[in-house]
Design brief:
The chain is of the alpha/beta class. The chain contains ten helices and eight strands. It has a single domain (7-225), classed as Alpha-Beta Barrel (TIM Barrel), CATH 3.20.20. Strands 1-2-3-4-5-6-7-8 form an eight-stranded parallel barrel, surrounded by seven helices. Strand 3 (63-68), helix 4 (77-90) and strand 4 (94-98) form a beta-alpha-beta unit.
């Protein structure tokens, strides 16, 4: 990496994750203020926090997104559609849905595709990112999931929830990038805890990053851009 990107450029590619089930309202608010401070692209909040986040971030450039069928993907298609409609009513602009992992692993690709298509149709023009949960899949299943997501109209394929014991890897994002056409983007999440990891994945074709280590990453970039060494730290965040 000979030329560092600006803090604003990288902030514009981050979905700051506020998804841990134990977070209090005060902790959620602290993360929302962090998002405002750094003018990141978006926050990804729990469904019950969408309306609050929209109100709290009013007047800022930060978009509010949420999750659908999270974290296991096993809710019915009808439930995912209902979640989608509620999220949009509450003001969410982007939706990160978990595909039906068990049905994918069973080879029931038509079911997987129809599940994604129903959410995308309910979302209309809003962005839908499909979470594969790559830690639970072999390469053939990852490729099949990417194909189902693309056929169903997904805007992104995404590696992980961060709650399944594994996260994004360089091999996975490269495979995903190679498995979808140019109209589908790739989001890395789970284990994106430091600047070097983010930059490597960006080089591999990732255009959006889900992380709760936003401050660590952007402060490290600011320090390097200013001529310092930066921390190189990998935050302990689990998303």
């Amino acid at each position: 990496m000979t030329t560092l990107l600006s803090v604003a450029e990288i902030a514009g590619e981050i979905d700051h994750a506020i998804l841990k089930p134990e977070l209090t309202r005060a902790e959620v608010d602290a993360d929302l203020e962090l998002a405002r401070e750094y003018s990141i692209f978006s926050v990804c909040v729990r469904p019950s926090d969408v309306a609050h986040a929209v109100e709290r971030l009013a007047g800022s450039p930060v978009a509010v997104g949420t999750v659908i069928g999270f974290p296991h993907g096993t809710t019915t298609t009808q439930a995912k559609v209902a979640e989608t409609r509620q999220a949009l009513e509450d003001g969410a602009l982007e939706l990160d849905m978990v595909l039906n992992i068990g049905r994918l692993r069973s080879g029931l690709l038509d079911d997987v595709e129809e599940d994604i298509r129903a959410v995308k149709q309910a979302a209309g023009d809003q962005v839908v990112k499909v979470i594969l949960e790559t830690a639970l899949l072999d390469d053939d299943q990852k490729i099949a999931a990417c194909g189902a997501a693309e056929r169903a109209g997904a805007d992104f394929v995404k590696t992980s929830t961060g709650f399944a014991g594994g996260g994004a890897t360089l091999d996975d994002v490269r495979l995903m990038r190679a498995s979808v056409g140019p109209g589908v983007q790739v989001k890395a999440s789970g284990g994106v805890r430091g600047l070097d990891t983010l930059l490597e994945m960006r080089e591999a074709g990732v255009t959006r990053f889900g992380t709760s280590a936003t401050r660590v990453i952007l402060d490290d970039l600011a320090a390097r851009s200013a001529g310092g060494r930066g921390t190189g730290a990998e935050d302990a965040a689990s998303y």
